[in-house]
Amino acid sequence: MRKSEIKQKFDEIVDFSGVERYVDTPVKRYSSGMYVRLAFAVAAHLESEIMIVDEVLAVGDAEFQKKCLGKMGDVSGKEGRTVLFVSHNMGAIKNLCHNVIMLNNGTIAFNGNVNDGIKAYTQVPGKLNAYKNDSPEKKFREITIEGNDNEVKSDFGFDEDIKIRIKFIAERQYFHANIGFKVLDNLDRCIFTSEKEIKDIVKSDGQSAVSVTINSGLLTPGQYKISFAMHIPNAQIIELVQDAFNFEILETGTNAYQYSGADLGCVFFNNEWIPL
């Protein structure tokens, strides 16, 4: 920026960055968060034809992230300039971008519209969530978690169902027991549990398969893990598969970046709010 431009935009930059209380403090004493907030504020007020922003949503609180996205939207929409936005935040990408390029090991793996790009990203093979154990003494023989496309995976969109498929064996003396699972967040807090009495789902020979769905829009974006158990209520655990899988809910098609999941809880209840 020229000196005249700095003078003209100084107050606006400081206000946007939120560091007005520390404006007389040497920048070398800023925290990394303050430094990057100020850096983005300066970059956002440059009048370059192309603005390149890399993972700005990793900086600052939810309110500042929302402000950054709004500014980038103004730069591209109202001012007609190009924003190259580098991010793994699918919700922000869907709200801000018109086209997506996905890179894999330095090469272009996808180039096209936003919806198809998000779908391509969520289908990138990662740690496949499949458990299998053929030991005769084991009750849980095979467990998978799948998305809407019935593919086994570990990343799911906020607007995507999670289908859990369980193959198990239960001898007749365990037909009165329950089978279930527990979902925890990345701080080991229990989010919810679900279980069913075995006699309601088991076949007569004890070899059975069952499917359970965690409906889309229930878990807010973030990382989770899931454990499975067969147990007699208020008595013994017959078998436990502790932390069987890790999975992540991605921000796809929501404004979840505005509350960043952890700020307002891990479960999103889409209740009807009725004015009285």
Sequence of secondary-structure elements: HHEHEHEEHEEEEEEEEE
Overall body shape: elongated
> How many β strands by DSSP?
13
Whole-number total of structural domains: 2
Query: Uncertain segments of ≥5 residues (pLDDT<50)?
Result: 256-262
Described by strand count, sense and barrel closure, the largest sheet is: 5 strands, mixed
CATH third-tier fold name of the largest domain: Coagulation Factor XIII, Chain A, domain 1
CATH architecture of the largest domain: Distorted Sandwich
Q: Give me the side-by-side strand order of the main sheet.
A: 7-13-12-9-10
Tell me the CATH superfamily of the largest domain: abc- transporter (atp binding component) like domain
Radius of gyration equals 24 Å
Gist of the model:
The protein is an alpha+beta fold and 276 residues long. The chain is built from five helices and 13 strands. The strands form four sheets. It has a five-stranded mixed beta sheet with strand order 7-13-12-9-10, with no helix packed on it. It has a four-stranded antiparallel beta sheet with strand order 5-6-8-11, with no helix packed on it. The protein has a two-stranded parallel sheet with strand order 1-2.
